[in-house]
Amino acid sequence: MGPQGRDRFDDVLEGALKRYGDVQPRAGIEGRVLANLAAREQRRLIRWRWMWAASGAAALAVALAVWLSHSPGGQAPHQAAVQEEEAILAAPVPAPKAVLPGSGEARHVRRTRRPLRVAVEAEAKLPRFPSPRPIGEQELMLLEYVQHYPGEAILIAQQQDAFQAAVEQAAREIRENSNQQGR
Amino acid sequence: MTERALTENALLMTATNQDALEAAVREHTRLVYRIAYSVSRNHHDAEDATQETFMRVLRYRRKLQGIDDPKRWIARIAWRVAIEQEKKRPADGQGEKDVADAISQLRAGGKTAEELASGGEMSTILEGLIAALPDSLRDAIRLSTLQELLPGEIAKILETSEASVRSRLFRARQILKDKLRALEAQHGTTR
After folding, report:
1. Which of A16, A75, A137, A152 has its CA 20 to 30 A from that of B51?
2. Which ipTM was obtained for this model?
3. What is the largest CA-CA distance in chain A?
4. pLDDT classification of B78: cutoffs 50, 70, 90
């Protein structure tokens, strides 16, 4: 082929390459790309906010844990209850009141001595009310007695008060006499 | 800085960059699409590559405002995305089959090169011929078919000199012309 043929193929190739590169996308491609980008950006912002919220919550939880571990009153409730119960059990039991032997009063007291001791124990001040300790067998018996014999229970209580007052009066008189003798 | 202040700053920055991004999309989508299509020769893949290109632009949108030539920057991203997608795509041999069909039509019809050039067969034949070129020549000729790109811009995309691009284009055209001439002579379509 001569130079003329060469020129002809130049033109052919030029035209073919032009057609080869002349391609148009489907209509609305810009809109689709923008919509896709907006959706992606929205997802990113949501993820970003969640990330901040999660890190804030984590920081708060850590701060709370640190504060609780260093706070004296911030022990776990179960542990506190156990310690309270141990303190109650270790507390000294008050001594029973003295009763004059042979009196009618003594008979009543003998019948009710153990329940009354329990009542005295129950009256001891507890660090927390109501006590975490369940009600005991002797306390139940005392309650049962008071329910069945309320009159006698009142009488016993009154007699105990009177006896206590008499003992205190006697103790005062003894102290005064010993003071006078000392002078 | 509080979380609220950080969020407001981020939103403000996002809004500023959003305008630049939207402008870039409106201005360069067609170029991106054509670059992608020049590699994949498939509308679906080209649109996927276009979406992916702008996703990458979104990822690096903070750079967009400081770039001297956004067109060249975006074109380079598009080219890389298209090449990555082409590498992932399994070779199905469909192109070779199309070329064979086009040549058989050429043989049966006895058309001249000019008649072929005005029909769809020449595009198919040319696709096959371009695909058979060495990589460096093929890339240069693919990008040269996009009228928006000058040889200097093609050189930047391919990370080479303009002189090299011109040389590659000359060699690629020579090879293509020789092959077309040989095809025409082989099937007797020259008048």
Report:
1. A16
2. 0.71
3. 160
4. very high
